[in-house]
Amino acid sequence: MDLLINRFYSKCLALLFGMLVFFSVAACCQTSGSGEGTTPSRQDIEHYLQQHPNADPSQNPDVQNNSNQTNVPADMNQGTGTATVNKDSIPQNNGEKEPGPDDTYGAYVFGNAAVASLSELSIPPLDYPIGVGDHIVVALWGGGESQQTYIVARDGSIFPQGLGKIIVQGLTFEQARELIYSKFKRIVPSTTNISVTLGAPRSITVNVGGEVRKPGPLTVSAFSNAFNVIGLAGGITPLGNLRAIQVKRDGKIIQVLDVYKYLSTGEIGDHVYLQNNDFILVTFVEKKVKATGFFKRPMYYQLKKDEGVQALMQYAGGFSSNAFTSSIKVLRNENEKQVIHNVNATAMLKDPGNDYALSDGDIVEIDSIKTGIANKVEVAGAVTYPGVYEFKQGDHLFDLIHRAGGVLKNTFLHRVLVFRGGADSTGLTANMERLDVDISGIDAANSSADTNNVLIQPNDLIQLFRVNEFADAEYVDIYGEVRKPGHLPKYAGMTLQDLLYLSGGIKPDAQYGRLEISSVVDVDSARSGYKPTRTIVRSYAITPDLQVDTIASKIILQPYDQIYVRINPVFRTQQNVQLLGLFKYPGFYPRLSTSEKLSDYVTRAGGFAENADLSGAILYRQKIDLFRESIVKKSKVDTTGSAAADSTEASLREPVSIDLQEALKDNNNKQNIVLEENDIIYVPEVNPFVTVAGSVQSPLKITYDDAHKHIGYYIDEAGGFGIHPWRRRIYITYANGKSRRTNNFAFFHFYPKVTEGSTITVPHRPEGKAFTDALTQSLTTIIPVILGGILIKLI
User: Fold this and answer.
1) How many CB atoms lie within 10 A of CB 761?
2) How open is the CA angle 726-728-732, to the nearest 5 degrees?
């Protein structure tokens, strides 16, 4: 018995010793692992966020426990609030579209706001309020080494062992850090360094409403501000107000945020930390104007009620160096008419107190405007700034020329044409009044009294000429992925960048594409008869910002150069298929993949409406003109001798017969075809009539009778056959465009069946075909009889 008792005590001691060793090793591993570990990759964080879209990134144990960041002692960041930089915290450009002229300034701010919310692993600002759920990390080193994480309990306290409760709720991070530091300083050796930091912040629920893409409650970290929350809500809709984003708490507005103030000054206003059940409201936009032309940043801008051109110039970054600032144009709708106002921005730049009020929907531009404005005069030709200008009562010819910047050095002064009403949408007409004016005295001291300084009327067109206007014109051509391809006149010093501007710029389809310049060389030698011309081609890459490099943009173009902007072979915009007729939800449907079939679109359209005739469904596919139609039969130049647009795709569509009923039976059915871009599927209503046409007594439409599917019934209803009917060639065309012919054997005719919406066609038999048909029928009858007699004899 004693032996058994001794063995029992020995095993218990061994087990107890093993447990002590195990816990000691675990504690050492925890201490050493708290400051070191594997840094989570960006892919790990993105994978976790995809699995938990509304989760707080700090709650992921892989992210929280493996955060590879440098912990700086509290005294080193005293008063700075500088956050530590994580290895993978820098946002990467994943090919997002850059803001363009058709976008609203400031709306893109919320695109990266959600990425910024991952900063909860960083040190918070010193005024951050501590709350329930915050993780406070206390690290000791030097005299002793330890690191512990304390979570603020519901009573607002943490409970370090040996120190008792420490109430931290309601304190700022700076106050809580000082309090915890003083508590630990009392019990640790004097040589021990103490660092108090914040780990994962608490999570809060914030409500988002108004003009955001995904309104509703969101769970975010307490570090998040209103911009982060709006970014997580999908950003602001085109109708959202960027200038007055409201933050409400307990029904009261506690903060109003202005995105433009943030972008212009870097200030977001009073720093208000979000709390549980806060409400962020995005109201409707108050005033939205468009800046176009030679602004540094042309796009749409939202303005406050009291803001005008001065504010617009500030937000748009001012004007380009070559902008005509002394006469910018404001297009506005007044009294159901579109009018134009000229504003002297040069004076505004010199006097900040001088402003011009803008209205919602205004378009502010420096370039010429489109026709159709009621109070305009167009100045064209050899002036400094040709374009459209505001008509003012009492304006004379010289006033408008001076307003357009004056004449050029090579302007032909002895003849200027003034067309009365020539600037309206009708253009020049045969019965239009025309004035021939000599403006040689435009710069004279008494030019206002000159008889040639005629009065101008609304919609007048003033045409000035250059001395060398009748010389041979030189031109360049640009094709491909630009907004305005075509034939452009060349001027001295014209660069590749100039041509790209004149053609409207490069389309997004050409991003990462290629640009080629085809030049004719040895022109002078060829004209002199020494040697023929040669053609050379130079290629340049297109950058992601839809530009060419600096060296290529400064290339001086030569006469007759041809520029080709090649498309990016892997870039495609949305491709649509149109469903028409008796679908439940007809309309345009984008192609989700290149293998999407007919049945897939029917499913997306919700099926068919009542009384839909599936047998009559027709596919219309865009017709492609190939070599014979588009090259041989069409001229490659227009009436002026200019190169015509090079396009092999016609706008015509041709019907394609389909069997929609068969296509819907099985996804792998051969009738279930893959649809292409711009295809149109039309499902008609059931047609209760049968059409009888051709060589009958009375061609007409007859109501379809399900009890009579034979062709003879309907021909009888049409009065029977007419003169010379070709019975062997009768055919039926069904509602879906398919046709079936008559099968013949000897004197017997097997006609196809008649269905709803069918068309019965009885062709007219040509002259001379009667004898041929009779001979054919006789032979087909005699040959079987002869063969039968031979077989009988053999038997």
Assistant:
1) 18
2) 90
